[in-house]
Amino acid sequence: MKPSLLHRREALALLLAAPAAARAQLRTAEESENNPRWQQQREALFGRRPIAEDESLIALQAPVRAEDAAVVPLGVRMGFAQGERGLSVRRLVLVIDNNPSPLAAQVEYGPASGRADFETRVRIDEYGFVRAVAELSDGRLVMSKRFVKASGGCSAPPGKDAEAARAALGRMRLAVQEDAPPGQPLRAQLMVSHPNDSGLVMDQVTRMYTKAQFVRHITLAYAGAPLLQAEVDFSLSENPHLRFWLKAEPRGGELVARVDDTEGRHFEQKLQLSA
């Protein structure tokens, strides 16, 4: 028996009355390339250049359903090291389709980069696609995407109270893998203490929204050579964390991290690596 027109109208009214988070749960992977927000980002970043999906060249790792929408781990794995087979990654772009600010990170790689693999933690505001797009040295664009079920990450309250966050603001930690095989890229990570406020969180006492203030630029250099430059947004989680790979130097060298936020604050950390 077919549903009546009245029943269909009632169902539509209930759907439209549902909150955004509930409607987001109805979305499926079918909205892939038709998402207007992705199309807007694609046009702004890449124009009309073709983008191929090739998991042998780039693979995005992300949970199907996030345990915490404010802290979603993401990893990008490239199918080659920088310079291998004469191929390298010039730029890596991370887009979260349905976030208030979809462009989460744009990373440009320098000669000190060993691999363009990249790991971080992000906020996801609605069910939808997360995309990693790499621009290769031969001019090709390749993409990997994953549909992630998470909502409310950009307006979730911070994990620390405001006073503790202010006390730790700007503290940085660099760490580098010590047991890599000779000649192989070294895995390293950067951790920055910063609230990375989105400006979308309401203070439950004052009923006012917290001020947006977040890490905007990250620059890494090793042994005097550029490693990577990243332009990031509040889509990165509180206390931004990056994992990256650097090219080992026989004589060692100094790893330098510089971070700037939207308030004009500048933070720097250095780590001397031995031969």
Topology:
Blueprint: H1 5-17, H2 20-24, H3 36-46, E1 52-53, E2 58-61, E3 72-78, E4 89-96, E5 103-109, E6 113-122, E7 128-136, E8 141-148, H4 162-168, E9 172-176, E10 186-192, E11 215-222, E12 225-232, E13 241-246, E14 253-261, E15 266-273
Parallel strand pairs: 1-8
Antiparallel strand pairs: 2-3, 3-6, 4-5, 4-7, 5-12, 6-13, 7-8, 9-10, 10-13, 11-12, 11-14, 14-15
What features would you describe in this structure?
This protein has one domain: Immunoglobulin-like (Sandwich), CATH 2.60.40. It contains 4 helices and 15 strands. The chain has a 9-stranded mixed sheet with strand order 1-8-7-4-5-12-11-14-15, with no helix packed on it. Strands 2-3-6-13-10-9 form a 6-stranded antiparallel sheet, with no helix packed on it. The N terminus is likely disordered. Pfam families: SoxY, SoxZ. Keywords: Signal. This is Quinoprotein dehydrogenase-associated SoxYZ-like carrier.
